[in-house]
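Just scan this pair:

***
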Amino acid sequence: MTGSTRAPRREADAMSDSDGSAPTRPREDASMFSRLQLAPAYKQVSTEIERSILSGQLRPGMPLPTEQSLAERFGVHRSTVREAIRQVEQEGLVQRREGRRLFVALPGLYDLAPRTARLLMLQQTTFAELWQVAVTLEPLASQLAAEHAEPADLEELARNTELTAALQAEGANTLEQDRRLVELDVEFHALVGRASGNRPLMLAREPISLLYNPTLLQIHQRLPQSKARNLAAHRGILDALQRRDGAAAAEWTRKHMVDFKKGFEMTGLDMAAPISPPP
């Protein structure tokens, strides 16, 4: 039995219109693509330098390769490397020593706090939002401090409390004295945060403290009774820390934060108002 094989129809034939006219090609749709956002060369170089530092390839104290060496390694101009280094330097990851030589640095936990505080102001963050975070972080810091505080931490907290008590015993009626009380209050809570031994917590609470605590100056000036209440709370927290009672330390701190909010409202300040730069 013989027969012929028919060649398969070409795709174009299969796609031809039913009336035999030329096939219609699908229209190209470029809307599925978006324009590429290419980072500037200096930004790519700074990202690579930061990655080397964060990964541990470049450790704190090690000298950064020279501009010429980095330019050759990345295949860019020295001006590009110079701008990249400026970015890394602003992040606190390198410092200049011995003239113009750059060395890898380990930023302190509180070095980034001012930048974060500025960002919070730009975002129109309100005092109410700050309080919602502080009323969670500060009691947690106290609870952890009760477990991890070193004797030196407790000694510094006791000294801070004694200085606060002595200043209030003198009267603390002047603006300068009220400012000193605020400084001691900021220091007290920073010491508790440090005693917690939790670095992420320390870093998280610091920018909030920078923006929130200066309001205490207005409260002290408008509500003089707030000073004694503040000292009583600090003494309660310190006593709980010395007894290693985390639950009591956290509860004292929570009441302290609630009391702060009440004082804020009693002065007529608006919790819903955006924060402003500290004086």
The longest strand covers residues 94-97. The two ends are 103 Å apart (CA to CA). The CA atoms of residues 74 and 84 lie 11 Å apart. Residues 10-14 have pLDDT under 50 and may be disordered.
